[in-house]
Amino acid sequence: MECITLSPEDLFKFSSNYLLTFHHVHASPARLARSPAGLRPVEGRIKLNFDGAVFAGSQEIRMGIVARDFSSHYVGWKSVRQQRREEPELLEAFAAREAILLAHRFKWRKIILEGDCSNVILKLSSPQLDWSAAGTVFRDIKTLFFYFDSCEFSLIGRFGNNIAHFLAKPGSVIISFGLFDSFAATSHR
Question: Which Pfam families does the record match to this protein (predicted)?
């Protein structure tokens, strides 16, 4: 974890500017339109689809994230497995956090987070504080926004999110995350 030191004046300037920008860019829409196939990102942006899954009879949660560039080429992915149970909305919020952490790790500066849970997408795009059980996760995600030049949100239909859902299924992957390039896949445990 990085430690950044700012003077009180610089912290005030940064915070004021950040809040003004945040409220301007992330104004809450009255309603979200669900895109069945998802948005194709414009050049220079990376789209990260995320999904969380809980399975009957299991004490395990799974999260899947897949990243694509403007040409729809896969540039990265991540699968997370943890031994615990969570409510579906909270699990989707955790998956969104894993997606934004993946983007931060690989220094993708312009991103689109795309998921199939309307409550998560609405809460992420809202400037309002959320006091639900998932509220701390949403606040956690929002504190990471300042690392990005652009962070957009998109609601996608279940079918359009099938790759992220596949990565969240039990037995779907052994390796936890990877990066793709035009010649080979590089993966990490």
Answer: RVT_3
